[in-house]
Fold:
Amino acid sequence: MQSAGEVHNVFIGQASGTVNKASDDQSLAKQRQKFHFDFLNHTLKQAEWTFRLSVWFMTGGALIILAGGVLALVHAGNPDVSYLPYVTALTGALITIGGGALAVHSKRTMANLTKAAEDNEKKIDIDHKLEVATAFIDRVEDSEAKDRLNSAAAMKALGMEAKPETMVDRLLPGEQPREIEPGSPTG
Structure:
């Protein structure tokens, strides 16, 4: 006689006392960026399939229209089937129009994706410029000047723009050398 064994304790996954740190390690910005790129990738695949469908529909519609023309030639003069070529050609035309609509939709989606890619490229350039600026700021020896420059870089990154004259007065306080005006004495 055989007996089946019993399983009393089965543990799958992590132990109960640990916390899943993988999701905690991702910042909200990284999660948003991942979502954004996943969305763009999904949209790109959708646009590609929409384009393929449009080509298939337009090809099929054109073939049906050609079949309607062939039927019209074959049954020319036969009054019993005179409607058949017209119905076939109309069906082919409707399918071709549907394919054209899909092509327009695909083209519009690709234009939106191109704009999103250009926007991302601009943001990447801005991030790079900010990294370069902070690298230069880190080389400044004077801690007060470094703080003012970091503040200005933060304001720029946050989109808070000031007039250049105001920025110079705040970043470089004190008497600044003036430009030589035409007709003024030098010295």
The CA atoms of residues 21 and 171 lie 42 Å apart.
